[in-house]
Amino acid sequence: MAASGPAGFYPDPGPGEDADSMVRQTLLIVMTAGIILFSNLGAPRLWDRDEPRNAGCAAEMTSRGDWVVPTFNTELRTHKPILLYWFIMAAYALFGVNEFGARFPSALLAVGSCLLTWNIGRRLFTDRVGLWAAVILASSLMFDVAGRAATPDSVLIFFSTLSIYLFVRGTTAAGQEAVFREQSWFPHSQCLVVSMYVAMGFAVLAKGPIGMVLPTAVIGMYLLIVRLSQTTSPATITQPAVSNARPVASQSGGLRKYVSAASRAMIRCLRPFAPVHFLRTCWSMRPLTAIGVVLLVALPWYMLVGWQTDGAWTRGFFLEHNLGRATSAMEGHSGGIWFYPATILVGFFPWSVFAVPVLLNVIQSVRTTGPWRNGFVLMACWVGVYVCLFTVAQTKLPSYITPCYPALALLTSCFFEHWRSRESQVSAYWPQAAFISLGLVGVAMLLALPVAAHYFLPGEEWLAAVGGIPLLGAVFGFWLSRRGQVRVAQYAMATTAVCLTTVFFAWATVRVDQRRRDLGLLSMLARQDPASELGAYGVLEPSWVFYARRPVVELAKEHPGSRSIGAFLAAEHRYVITTRDRVAEVQKIAPRVAVLYRSPYFLKGEELVVLGSAATAPRLPGLAHTPESTRTVRRR
User: Fold this and answer.
1) H helix or E strand, kind and range, residue 553
2) Among candidates 267, 165, 179, 280, which has minimal Cα distance to 220?
3) Do 372 and 412 reside in the same domain of the chain?
């Protein structure tokens, strides 16, 4: 389809669109994403370690009526800013302090991210590309982890995607592919520009400076490329210059040729960063407006929390959890240049099986002058900026690049559209190879999961049946693609992805959670002795704090004051959780304590025990007489 002239803010549906079609697509996306993200959302208990920390922080703030200072286990929590806690506190007011309330904001915003991805696809490509991209995003593994967890990842994904959507809305017309405004390539509407930076301001409240830096870098990188192409054709930018000189037979001549080609390639890569061009592009993005709006949104809380904590929160967050994570690998989270490509293959599963044909399709589309080229460039910048910048950072976690998953979904959807319409120059064997890869993963799950369950979850070996879903989908998809029924093969893939993620998160995780009997220990203590105090020696999980509904004192062998284990156990109605191999050590310090309860330590191959005064045991019959036959982890 040919692109038309410049376009700005178009509130009405574009050509070929109608209100009924938009309503149907919206309902389909909300239903699909809702089933995946909300099914049994509150059934599994909070997973260590981030979920109970965030949910517990919001619970403590709710109990104090404090909307400024985040604390967990009565200690200042400097890991993340405030926005997630505000959302969870609001959900607690509606649903109570429970797992569903803690996860509800993440799931709701994940559905919103799917709708934003659909709208980006509609404006850059077609309605169908946007619809498929939303379904692909909703059924990708790591996105669902973010959308079903009480963590700030889903909040960051939503507001980062919102900022890029507002940029796209300000530079394209709905329903018209790649209609970008010439000359400036940046929204003319002051309202849209301010709204875009407001979204970034909320992202800063969700996870810190990266909420502004990375979306700005994505848009900036895109503008550096497309503004440069105003005076240079795409072929000139992307294709190496062809020399008319005759080939030189000598070895030195061949070396000079390769050096010359490498030099030209390097120059082409560096051209977008030419100083004058770079500064003009940055200025076109209205940096003063950006800084002013983001500060207006985020700065009041940052200043208030710094003032109320005498700067302790500010120092901890910016110096330790931002600068520290960028310059050194914290908590053992390190990795090489391969880390994030491998993370995408796992986190974007099952759609990552199409990684090779999608990549080939992107390269071919960027090298052309077609109407979708600018959309492909923007999506490539979106993925490239996140992957490259976090590869440079020393601390690496799979969740760091989830804000670029909407772009991955759009690129995959574009390949599906080209594959369906026979416009793709990618060999038809690549999609067939993708289905073979999907089948191999299914076979690996069928073989590996029973072995893993035998050692860690005995009796749950039949969870391996989940692997039958990708295997069955691969068989049908391969057979249909071989017969040339591409559209039906794609539907088979979508059905496989939706079923796999729904069954995995709504059913398999619930079965696994039922083996977490150590959390029943905390709930039992909270019910039977609500006035008791709880300590932990040598081991402490954040989930214990949440389910005990009280602070858990982290004890030491020798410590001045009440934090020493001897001083803590000297009083009545105090209990200590530790591992079995530390019981003798504790009883040397406090000989009157007895083992009141034993429980398997989930997936650790150890046993947890509750220690307390023997005189207390009769008052806790549920703890004293729980049989050891409840163990579910085999000791190795």
Assistant:
1) strand 552-555
2) 280
3) yes
Distance CA 152, CA 76 (A): 17
Judge if 504 and 524 occupy the same domain.
no
Q: Of the candidates 153, 168, 21, 174, which has an alpha carbon nearest to the alpha carbon of residue 87? A: 153
Same domain for 526 and 389: no
Residues 398 and 441 in one domain: no
Among residues 513, 532, 558, the one where a domain terminates is: 513
Percent of the chain clearing pLDDT 70 (strictly above): 85
Q: What percent of the chain has pLDDT over 90?
A: 61
Cβ neighbour number for residue 12 with a 10 Å cutoff: 9
pLDDT of 553 strictly over 80: yes
23, two tokens? 């309503």
Give, in order, the Cα–Cα distances in Å from 557 to each of 514, 562, 566, 579, 581. Answer: 33, 11, 8, 14, 15
Closest Cα partner for 182 from 120, 231, 123, 215?
231
Q: Is residue 7 part of a domain?
A: no
Q: What is the mean pLDDT of the chain?
A: 86
For the chain, the straight-line distance linking the first and the last C-alpha, in angstroms and rounded, comes to 64
For 239, list phi and psi in degrees, rounded to 5: -105, 140
Q: How many domains does the chain have?
A: 3
Q: What's the CA gap between 624 and 616, in Å, rounded?
A: 10
DSSP string, 161-228: HHHHHHHHHHHS-TTSTT-PPTTT-S---HHHHHHHHHHHHHHHHHHSTHHHHHHHHHHHHHHHHHHH
33 and 111 part of one domain: yes
CA distance 614 to 610: 11
DSSP 51-118: HHHHHHHHHHHHHHT-SS--EETTEE--SS-SHHHHHHHHHHHHH-SSHHHHHHHHHHHHHHHHHHHH
* pLDDT tens digits for range 37-59: 999 999 999 998 899 999 999 99
Q: Which of helix, strand or coil describes residue 601?
A: strand
pLDDT of residue 72: 96
Return d(Cα 603, Cα 406) in angstroms, integer.
33
Torsion of CA 513, 515, 520, 521, to 10 degrees: -130
Can you tell me the mean pLDDT for 280-298? 95
Q: How far is CA 195 from CA 80, 183, 190, 191, in A?
A: 24, 22, 8, 6
Whether 85 shows a pLDDT value over 80: the answer reads yes
Half-sphere exposure of 350 (CA within 13 A, CB side): 33
Nearest to 24 by CA among 130, 183, 142: 130
Residue 190, both tokens: 């002051």
DSSP SS3 for 348 = coil
Residue 284: other Cβ atoms inside 10 A: 15
pLDDT tens, position by position, 323-337: 877 777 766 677 889
- Any idea what DSSP says for residue 504? I
Name the residue among 617, 63, 206, 20 with its Cα closest to residue 215. Answer: 206
Q: Crossing angle of helices 405-420/127-138, nearest 10°?
A: 130
CA dist 232 and 226 (Å) reads 9
pLDDT in tens, 565-611: 888 888 888 899 999 999 988 888 888 888 888 888 888 888 999 99
Say what the pLDDT of residue 565 is: 87
Give the span between the Cα atoms of 344 and 402, in whole angstroms: 9
Please state, in angstroms and as integers, the Cα–Cα distance from residue 322 to each residue in 226, 313, 326, 402, 628, following that order: 32, 12, 6, 18, 45
Residues 496 and 572 in one domain: no
Q: Which residues pair with 597 in a beta bridge?
A: 610
